[in-house]
Amino acid sequence: MPKTAILILAAGASTRMGRPKQLLPWKNTTLIGNCIKTAKAITADVLVVLGANATIISDVLPSSVETAINIGWKNGMGTSIAFGVQQIEEKFQPEQLLVLLIDQPLIDEAYLKKLLRQNSNKIVATKYGNRVGVPVLFPRTVFKELKNLSADHGARHLLEKFKDQLLILEANGKAVDLDTPENYANYFDTYGK
Question: Does the pTM of the predicted model rise above 0.85?
Fold first, then answer.
């Protein structure tokens, strides 16, 4: 398998949640802890990009986790991806990059391994509803494009641009984003205790 690094995006302010969702309880840890555990089951080369609430979040992370703070996090997820890819290239020199979000706790090791098995030198994105997105696997051939993402042009723009090089994988209900107190509570009661 090509050398893989994982970029965990955790820079957002969780405005719809009303508190830092990175720190919300999930199983025996937090949402961010759960995501890190899943990522580390795949590769040791994991980088967490922080932004809003970086100090309080980094205080609860294990010292073994690489972090980087995107001071431009308010400019959107595209800037966190661009910043993270730059950091990951310098630290790990991967051949491919897997991007994860901390608020998708149903994404598990089995799904990520299935995604990695596509091993196609194409972009492999996750389908949920009528959309495609994260988790998404990017080959090295698009790293330059990723580093040029901005507030105006995020990763969704890139998936559209490279749609002829895109494989889409069905997550079978695992690609659920926990964005509000209500949907967090519902999923926590069923899966997070």
Answer: yes
